[in-house]
Amino acid sequence: MTISRRSFLKGAMAGSAASLIGPGLLTTAAAGVTEQGVWKTAGSHWGAMNALVKGGKVAEVKPFGADQYPTEMLNGIKGLIYNPSRVRYPMVRLEWLKNRHNGDRTTRGDNRFVRLTWDAALDLFHEELERIQTDYGPWALYAGATGWRQTGQVHSCGNHMQRAVAMHGHFVKKVGDYSTGAGQVILPYVLGSTEVYSQGTSWPLILENSKTVVLWGNDPYKNLQVGWNCETHESYAYLEQLKAKVAEGSIRVISVDPVRTKTQKYLGCEQLYINPMTDVAFMLGMAHTLYNEGLYDQEFIDAYALGFDDFIAYVQGEAEDGEVKTPEWAEAICGVPAERIREFARLLAADRTQLLFGWAIQRQQHGEQPYWMGAVLATMLGQIGLPGGGISYGHHYSSIGVPSSGASAPGAFPRNVDAGKTPEHDNTDFQGATSTIPVARWIDCLLNPGQTIQYNGAEVTFPDIRMCVFSGCNPWHHHQDHNRMKKAFHKLETVVTIDYAWNATCRFSDLVLPACTQFERNDIDIYGSYSNRGVLAMHKLVDPLFHSRSDFDIFTDLCRRFGRDEEYRQGLDEMGWVKKLYDECREANKSFVPAPTGDQSTFSMPEFTQFWKEGYVDFGPGENWVRHADFRQAPEVNALGTPSGFIEVSSRKIDRYGYDDCRGYPTWMEKAERSHGGPNSDRYPLWLQSVHPDKRLHSQMCESEELRATYAVQGREPIYLSPQDAEQRGIQDGDLVRVYNDRGQLLAGAVVSDDFPPGVVRLQEGAWYGPVGPEIGALDTYGDPNTLTLDLGTSKLAQAPSANTCVVEIERFEGEAPAVTAFGGPTLVEI
Amino acid sequence: MRESLASSAAADSQTGGGAPLDGASEGLLCRWLSTLLGAELDEPTLARYRQGEAAPLLGYLCEAHGLDEQAGRIEAALSRLVMFTTPRLELAADFAELFLADARSGAPPYASLYLDERQGFLGAPAERMEARLAEAGFAVKREVGEPADHLAVMLDYLGHRLERLAETEGAEALALRRELATFLEHELCSWLPRLVARSAEVRTASDLYPALLALTEAYCRRLAERLRLA
């Protein structure tokens, strides 16, 4: 009986199975030969590298041979490629799929997604671009946000996104960036170029000529670990020499910083403590000393600068405010004893002094002022254009200061529509609104369409943006005040994100497309960043994981939907582009005649096939160079790019704008909030600095378990605080703490360190955002400082981010801690 | 379909199920589970499920393996789909929440995320599975785009091997049974309970996929026992 029933069931089951079993996932294959593995060349922001690929997997990563100072972050590369947070398939948010722009936008972030095929996903992307251009116009589409992409000149994701979207129609772009927003706007008025992204005086000349080096809010030993291109860390050899010179007493290095930095500890140098955000007051006190003690260089000012009289009148108390900027006046604000201010001014004037400014002090309200004031101090010292003197705003960044080889670098896949071509939708009517938003004001724009703001001498009216496209750019890491961002995202109809990891931007999107990592496609890049030391072959190590695709493929396929894929890729495939960029670079270097030798063989490059096989071309070391030496030598011939051609201590142009928060010369202005007795410090007495992280690149690699295990505290981002602040609050090292202000709250793990003075705490930017729930103000479970930071323009001039203007309070967290959701994927975040 | 070839069934010892293990039928079951766990249901297939076409499969699981509770949970989940206006989309979203989104949440169906200390993709379990596939003359289809330690791939492999078992006899069959039992114990039963536990924590609209995972886990455990007992 049983047997016959079983037989019956077996027969029925077989019939049922035949209709319900799919085609299967396996295919027959001949047994493969055991692979010994092959070493390939690759590169990243963290460093150029050699990788052993075995059995279709990256088995081992070693620093590139020429990199003598590799960062430990290379240990995170494998964890990044094989990370559980990889976006593996095209995904669409269910509510949006069902109802598109008519759906409930407040559910964006509730993150119930479904998978799509690539064809379906790209059809949706194209349909949305069509809808936005047809129903609204170019003013409704924002595809301007770009960021630290992955390295590689062919696949640079911002270029791909903007070229493809631009071939379809015009859109709103951005100007500026989050790193140097204030600096890059103010310095062209003062020194004639952005300075922040300019090559600086060569390190060998600094080491040879400087008697004093001032690190002003600058931590190069930490920040030089990453570079814009494939980094080879050449600056570290010079830092090592500087350390030796500090030890032998031939160079005095002083770190002006509230915190004992990693660089200070490495160099074994001095620290000059200053209250946060009070650098301008401190420098005004120094200017007062230099002027009244006759220590300034009047001849230099007469020959190379304009507007000194107006400025010095302000210092002397002869301006409207009537305040004399004595060291005593400064002391009350900056916390540096007046006599120390005088001594410091005298020291800098006594011999050759190189000022090396970091970027942190311009990422605050009125961030234009410390940079301008630094240039004025350097002008008063009269050493601009001398080896080992003057001022730099970039020696902590991408090998600036390492002598440049002078060779040409490979170009890039184009960002724009080809010359002579027009987009599918050639409507350029932005209806009176701007086509270019100051980058840090885009959330203001979403929240206040139609509003007009002042920006750099012009008026900017915000467009009514309905759709955003992001690619390899994570604004949910880099923009301030996430709770404000949540409100802004409720207004958007469509958000498309292309990325390789489920970061918060993906989780707040409607359509998420999986890009592969840079280790899954072929590319080419320079190594050595500003030194332009050589060209690197970025071999594809493994095929794109899961269903991810390269940016090149994704956007070629998008353009196919409006019949312009061939035009998009100019008839070339990936390797065709790699070769094209190499060949063009080779051609440019053939005709290059480096001064002074005229030796044309300096930059000879082999045929592409040889280069690709060998993995790199080295251009050799560069020549020493002094920033602004040409200007100093012949100011009329080599005039600066300022309106006058001279250093503008005061700017008539800025003065004419009539801004109350950026006047005609550098001034001290109180901040919206400030610790150490400043506004709001009675409620929130701790200054929160959100510095560049030590063990990741912004938010890139925060997902790496290997690296996070080396710094996280109870699985949370560390918050560093002083023993005094910890004791006052009953906080022990390793405790879970709640950090909060009126804008938000987060959990972090306490690290009590005497590197930090009372009133100063640090959360490194780039920590992934993971709120516990949908509500505005929800507790962030991991510790993203932008949950707390202030979303305020630096001034009407630059309208740049003011992330470092932020005060908070901390308390020991009691009770059951919620699980970290930052890396937990889309199902756990709601708004 | 392969009953005539199921000669190994005759060689099976009697088990708790009271019947010999039928490699061909078990192979079908594995490949059916693989299909369900490998991709979302499309509308026509979902319609077939809602019309009861899976009943014989579920019935066999009850009859041959005593998995009444687990099979009943599947049937209940299918019958409750009437609650949804767009059941296919809701199931697809459940599938995504469990299997497709950030693998730190949900119930990612990859052995490496449970058995490898690095807890990343393509860990040692994936390498072992690749080697196992290669040895058996298989590879994952390129268009599948999944590593070899995806549960659906492993079940598909198991299905093929069980069907092979149905074609073998004697010592070869015995060796293959032992090999498959070891495979089940080491490579599937070692992490499926954790997968099921994680699925229970995920907020899904329907119970279909959590129930399917529970069924798969119980089935693998049962199958390993019966292969071992043979």
Task: Name a few traits of the molecule.
heterodimer; A: 831 residues; alpha/beta; Rossmann fold; Dimethylsulfoxide Reductase, domain 2; 4 domains; 6-stranded mixed sheet; 30 strands; disordered C terminus; B: 230 residues; mainly alpha; TorD-like; 12 helices; globular; disordered N terminus
Structure description:
The complex is a heterodimer of chains A (831) and B (230). Chain A has 28 helices and 30 strands. Chain A is globular. Chain A is α/β, with parallel strands linked by helices and 831 residues long. In chain A, β13, α16 and β14 (390-392) form a beta-alpha-beta unit. In chain A, the strands form 8 sheets. A 6-stranded mixed β-sheet of chain A has the order 6-5-20-19-18-7. Chain A has a 6-stranded mixed β-sheet with strand order 26-28-27-30-25-29. Chain A folds into 4 domains: 27-81; 91-178 and 416-521 and 551-571, 3-Layer(aba) Sandwich (Rossmann fold), CATH 3.40.50.740; 182-403 and 631-657, Dimethylsulfoxide Reductase, domain 2 (3-Layer(aba) Sandwich), CATH 3.40.228; 686-823, Barwin-like endoglucanases (Beta Barrel). With 230 residues, chain B is an all-alpha fold. Chain B has a single domain (23-229), classed as TorD-like. Helix content of chain B is 65%, strand content 1%. Chain B is built from 12 helices and 1 strand. Chains A and B meet through α1, β1, α3 and β6 of A and α2, α3, α4, α6 and α8 of B.
The CATH topology of chain B is TorD-like
Total beta strands of chain B? 1
Q: Give the fraction of residues assigned to helices of chain A.
A: 25-40%
| Relevant CATH superfamily of chain B | TorD-like
Number of strands of chain A: 30
The major pleated sheet of chain A works out as: 6 strands, mixed
Shape of chain B: globular
Oligomeric assembly? heterodimer
Outline type of chain A:
globular
Mean pLDDT of chain A: 95
Q: Taking Cα atoms only, what radius of gyration of chain B do you get, to the nearest Å?
A: 17 Å
Domain count of chain B = 1
Strand content of chain B: under 5%
InterPro entries (chain A): Asp_de-COase-like_dom_sf, CT_DMSOR/BSOR/TMAOR, Molybdopterin_N, MoPterin_dinucl-bd_dom, Mopterin_OxRdtase, Mopterin_OxRdtase_prok_CS, Prok_Mopterin_Oxidored, TAT_signal
Protein name (chain A): Trimethylamine-N-oxide reductase
Keywords (chain A): Metal-binding, Molybdenum, Oxidoreductase, Periplasm, Signal
Cofactor (chain A): Mo-bis(molybdopterin guanine dinucleotide)
